[in-house]
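Review form for a predicted model. The reviewer records the input and the model, then writes brief findings.
Reviewer: anonymous (R2)
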Amino acid sequence: MRADLLAAGFTVDAVADRIGPAAAAALHREQALPAERVTRGAGDPVATLVRLFVLGRETAGDDVERALPSLGVSGARALGLLQDGETADSVRAALDLRPYGDGTHDWWLASDLGELVTQAPLREDHVLGVGGASMTLAAWTPRPGARRVLDLGTGCGVQALHASTHAGEVVATDLSARAVELARLNAALNGVEWDVRQGSLFEPVAGERFDLIVSNPPFVITPRIEGVPVYEYRDGGLAADSLVRSVVRDVGQHLEPGGIACFLGNWEITATRDWRDVWTDWLDGTGLDAWVVQRETQDPAEYAELWIRDGGTSAATADFDRLYEAWLDDFAAREVTEIGFGVCVLQRPATERQPFRDLVEHSGPVASPMGPAVLQGIRARTYLAEHTDEEILDVAWQVADDVTEERYGRPGAEDPQVIQVRQGGGLGVTHRLGTAQAAYLSVCDGSLTARQALTAIAALLQRDSADVQAETLPLLRALVADGLLR
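Model under review:
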């Protein structure tokens, strides 16, 4: 199968070129008709593979034989990729199979057919393909050189594929037996080796440690009552947000000193307990460093609508209304006002020290990929946690290349009323500066230590140098943490 897909040139770029930008954009919106129109009646291998495995259309066996000359229809049946069509000479896909890549690598991922093809609610053991959450996690994951990486809740293996580019060993686990089977298929299909294990959360890796743990866990908050489907790929089987809490509480036991965990999650917010209170409770006593970015919030109604539709239940039906009410009742029972979503980056400190904790909200655009900025941010925060204010003042910091300065003032005014610096990459954060801080950044080119520069600035402003240093230190630490100073 791998040889045939390589020979056909079945890649992300080839598919985009074959169906065109309009059809590709429509397919991203779960609209298949434009892609179906441009491939209808075509017999070239890419068009055949798109119609068969991406669109789920019944396809002539002869076309499949031409697209997969080594494997053939019989071999594809043996792999569980094909099933009988309505006519004797046609076949249909039994699985979704599509190209995937990271800009450097061309891969393929097999997963279960989605509702776009089946036109029915998903089965409870459905194995999801590449979705928005998995792409978000792949983009945010830091990728240091790692001896061992764990993909917790691997699904079809999206994160394990990315990990295979920078890890000596990849262990992939999932509670779902079907996910384990498909992950093993995808490892073989892409010519990589993973240690794939079945089991719940950290049970399959008891007593083991990793340099990096990445996870798109089943974090969806689902009512635990009869009649509400529990989808293995998204529902962890625990009430409220306790599954994400258990990951936070247990992950440190499986990290090497200096090891990093990166995962997505949901958390419940109430009128008396905001999201930072939730995370403070989860982190206390773990000894872990934490950099958590809340990316968005939804009210209970929005959240219920999203995940009921995700399961393939159409709106304006009796089933939709029944599930909707169950979700709203569940949130009301715990007085939930909002559900937060974000990216969680935890680290086990390599030395005995007080862990750092940075809980920030950022709903705007970010760098893509975000992983390099995450790695730099974790390393910068680690440096700050391990060094005193006096040591930080003795470093010759330099403004990062992507930083710009903005000044705002009244028309005709001699001096600006607002001075701020903005980061071009990363989270794109801004920091407001005072006069002394703006003067410091203007000379921050790596030639003078912060102490030397601030002492000179204090003399020019006729101020006490100790006062200028004391008022600048919190900003200095923030600029280093966010990557504006390096």
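Findings: Residues 465-482 form the longest helix (18 residues).
Further findings: Residues 110 and 185 are 8 Å apart (CA to CA).
Recommendation: see findings above.
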